[in-house]
Design a protein that fits this description.
- Pfam families: HARE-HTH (PF05066), Sigma70_r4 (PF04545).
- With 345 residues, the protein is mainly α.
- It has 4 domains: 97 residues, Winged helix-like DNA-binding domain superfamily/Winged helix DNA-binding domain (Arc Repressor Mutant, subunit A, Orthogonal Bundle); 65 residues; 67 residues; 55 residues.
- It contains 16 helices and 11 strands.
- The strands form 4 sheets. A 3-stranded antiparallel sheet has the order 1-3-2. Strands 6-8-7 form a 3-stranded antiparallel sheet. Strands 9-11-10 form a 3-stranded antiparallel sheet.
- The longest helix has 19 residues.
- The model has no long low-confidence stretch (mean pLDDT 91).
Length: 345
């Protein structure tokens, strides 16, 4: 839906025009109304020779003065229209929205600081400050100031227990709070949760959600493909996934670099010439012979065909390589029935 564009800069200076020069300067600097970063309370206090607390009191008093003055000024109707637009946008987003995303929604071509000024001016708009759990957000529902952080903590604990990324539909089923709040807006607010390349959600600390290194991206590439790949193929899959990942883009994904990283990480198993699988898929580490030893340890005596079959499930090699290893009489023994066993020392 197309929303009306407002000249926020013009209107903001109009509604503060009645303030005395010092108060106006403090408000302008505090909210960044002259297109520069908002000043801290301390910095404004230093400029005017007053305490941080006194600056806060002046800003608070000025905002109340502006609200009262608007009701009798020519700007009343346009300010009410601005507030109505803000309320409509928040309603569409489920009544809560991460601050930076809300400002981007509302700003048009204006400075986001002017939008932030009007959000602070409207009594109906409530802000929850940033914590280590979530980004700052705005809401029109007072109860959301408590329920949203509580839910995000609950969600974080749920993921820690579940230990896997989940689709949106499954996450909705565990959400027991106000149904009026859009689930997608809640997830955006969280600092600890992010979307995977395939649209699921999980903890940012997980490599499959927020892969930071080439190794993590290689792990994700194999998980995404679901089968062993040559290291050159792994590099190509990483390149294809980069734009869909929540982590930084590695500009140079060289096959040899990928190969070097795969060798160093115990999550990966070399299953053939240059081809890697994941140990979590059940691949045994080690050489072909070491894998054959483990197979016979687990299964006891096996005939030639069974040894070949089980070894080929673990390694992408030629049958002749397996047969050559079976000829190692220092490791393998064959009985009269043709079954192979491990030599006992």
């Amino acid at each position: 839906m197309h929303m009306k564009s407002f000249p926020y800069e013009k209107i903001s200076f109009q509604v503060i025009s009645h303030l005395d020069p010092r108060t106006k300067d403090i408000v302008v600097r505090r909210f960044g109304l002259e297109d520069e970063e908002p000043f801290t309370l301390e910095r404004i206090g230093e400029k005017h020779g007053i305490t941080r607390e006194r600056v806060r009191q002046i800003v608070e008093g000025a905002m109340e003065d502006i609200r009262e003055n608007i009701t009798e000024s020519r700007a009343k109707d346009v300010v009410e229209d601005i507030f109505e637009r803000f309320e409509e946008n928040l309603k569409e987003e489920g009544h809560v929205k991460r601050e930076d995303l809300l400002l981007e929604n509302l700003r048009n071509d204006s400075s986001p600081f002017h939008v932030l000024f009007f959000l602070n001016l409207g009594d109906q708009f409530l802000r929850q400050k940033e914590t280590d759990l979530h980004h700052p957000f705005w809401t029109t529902k007072e109860e959301a100031l408590e329920t949203v952080p509580e839910f995000l903590q609950e969600l974080h604990e749920y993921f820690e227990d579940k230990k896997e990324a989940l689709p949106m539909e499954e996450l909705r089923s565990i959400y027991k709070n106000s149904k009026a709040i859009a689930f997608s807006s809640l997830l955006e607010i969280s600092k600890r949760v992010a979307k995977t390349h395939d649209g699921k959600w999980g903890l940012k600390q997980w490599p499959e959600v927020h892969p930071k290194t080439i190794r993590d991206k290689a792990f994700l590439a194999l998980k995404h493909t679901g089968k062993p790949l040559h290291f050159r193929e792994v590099a190509e899959v990483i390149k294809g996934l980069q734009s869909r990942l929540s982590s930084k883009i590695h500009k140079n994904i060289l096959p040899q670099t990928v190969h070097n990283e795969l060798i160093k990480d115990q999550r990966f198993v070399l299953v053939g010439r240059g081809k890697y699988g994941l140990i979590e898929w059940g691949f045994l580490p080690g050489t072909v012979k070491e894998v054959m030893v483990e197979i016979l340890k687990e299964n006891g005596g096996l005939n030639k065909d069974a040894v070949i079959e089980k070894t080929l499930l673990q390694r992408h090699v030629k049958e002749s390589t397996i047969l050559l290893n079976l000829q190692d009489r220092g490791t393998f023994l064959r009985d009269e029935s043709g079954k192979y066993y491990l030599k006992r020392f």
